[in-house]
Design goal:
Layout lengths: L1 E7 L3 E2 L4 E4 L6 E7 L3 E7 L5 H14 L2 E9 L4 H15 L5 H4 L10 H8 L6 E3 L24 E8 L2 E8 L10 H19 L5 E6 L9 H18 L6 E4 L8 H8 L2 E4 L10 H8 L9 H8 L1 H6 L5 E2 L4 H13 L11 H9 L7 H8 L5
Parallel strand pairs: 2-6, 5-6, 9-10, 10-11, 11-12, 12-13
Antiparallel strand pairs: 1-5, 3-4, 4-6, 7-8, 8-9
Keywords: Cytoplasm, Membrane, Phosphoprotein, Transferase, Transmembrane, Transmembrane helix
Pfam families: ACP, Carboxyl_trans
Protein name: Malonate decarboxylase acyl carrier protein
Length: 376
């Protein structure tokens, strides 16, 4: 990982801070803050491209001579993507309509974590806690040569759902596969504990978890596992007071330790594009061989772990089309229906009886036929 510091002339002050992008493959994160001069700090995963950065940014700031503090966390973006993200950040500062709005994009799957959280909350109520400008990021990635994300891949948003105070915890799947580390896990656990304190004090709260994760972050394995345990303990305690709603949309899905978290939710909403499983297809193939599971067989993967089969077999509660408004309506309905009966994770005898009747081989079609409608 390389850190590059640059300066450029600029005399047009910006009005407000702006944040765009994600530290994902071929992409970057840009944070823009008002300042008296233009300074740029770049943390990049690709070493030796200082002259390219200098030339790319010199061209951009020659056209846009703003005075700003610019922070860039790069995961191998091309000069074109760099210029695009900087332009998006300036559009946000100017209050211009984003490209996504111009295109009327309402696909929940294609939204990033921040957009998803905003879409689920009542219009105008979104307020982010510990956002990117707080720089609460993992201290363990940079020493391993990995560019951090300024929010460590978790968005904590307070607001309202149908006028009732709510907290939405959305995981950014484009950063490190949505994996859970010490800081991102602490943000989730701490938010659930804060919601628990509200519930115990009689203050209404509607907690929502938006999953997009492969599980524990391998670079922070033990710390991630410890955070996962705290998340599970807080969720189980919280659901005794209020429903905890989970959402799995795609593109990463929900696997590893976070699939257990999803299983602990009071109600779980999925799209057909979403996937849910304890182990991901690649992990199963690597450990048990391609004869057990071919991770390249997309039809097979979705027939086993996709949102449709998970809903039919009772591992998820509601199947919703990939539409932001439909997802928001499903979340509102989940809270309006109140707490369900006994928590799914507490129905040990029910699940043991199901497992005892597993067919061989346990295909998605066989499970759907055997378990469809079997929820009691």
């Amino acid at each position: 990982m390389e850190i590059i510091e640059l300066r450029f002339p600029g005399d047009r002050p910006i009005a407000r801070r702006a944040h765009v992008g994600v530290v994902g493959s071929g992409d970057l994160e840009v944070l823009l803050s008002p300042a008296g001069e233009t300074t740029v700090t770049i943390r990049t995963s690709v070493d030796g491209f200082g002259p390219t950065w200098q030339a790319t940014l010199a061209r951009f700031f020659a056209r846009h001579p703003v005075a700003a503090r610019v922070e860039i966390n790069d995961a191998g973006a091309t000069p074109g993507v760099v210029s695009l993200r900087l332009a998006q950040a300036l559009e946000g500062d100017a209050g211009m309509t984003s490209a996504a709005t111009l295109l009327n994009r309402r696909s929940f799957v294609e939204m990033n974590a921040r957009e998803r959280a905003r879409a689920l909350l009542d219009a105008g109520s979104f307020r982010e806690l510990l956002g990117p400008f707080e720089h609460v990021e993992s201290p363990w990635l940079a020493p391993q040569g990995i560019v951090p994300q300024s929010d460590d891949g978790v968005v904590v948003a307070r607001g309202a759902i149908d006028g009732v105070p709510a907290v939405v915890l959305a995981i950014e799947g484009a950063f490190q596969g949505g994996s859970t580390g010490e800081v991102s896990g602490a943000k989730i656990a701490g938010s659930l504990e804060r919601a628990l304190a509200d519930a115990e004090a009689g203050r209404p709260i509607r907690p929502v978890l938006v999953f997009e994760t492969g599980g524990v972050r391998l670079q922070e394995a033990n710390l991630g596992l410890a955070a996962m345990a705290e998340i599970h303990a807080a969720l189980v305690a919280l659901r005794r007071h209020v429903p905890v709603v989970g959402v799995i949309a795609g593109l990463v899905g929900c696997f590893g330790g976070m699939s257990i978290t999803a299983g602990l939710a009071s109600r779980l909403i999925m799209t057909r594009q979403g996937r849910l499983g304890l182990n991901g297809p690649e992990v199963i193939e690597q450990n048990a061989g391609i004869a057990e599971l071919d991770s390249r067989d997309q039809a097979l993967i979705w027939s086993l772990t996709g949102g449709e089969v998970r809903t039919v077999t009772g591992l998820a509660d509601t199947l919703v089309a990939d539409d932001a408004d439909a997802l928001a309506a499903a979340v509102r309905a989940a809270f309006a229906n109140g707490a369900p009966g006994p928590a799914s994770s507490a129905r040990i005898d029910f699940w043991r009886a199901r497992l005892a009747r597993l067919p061989e081989p346990a295909t998605g079609a066989a499970l759907a036929s055997l378990w469809s409608g079997d929820r009691t």
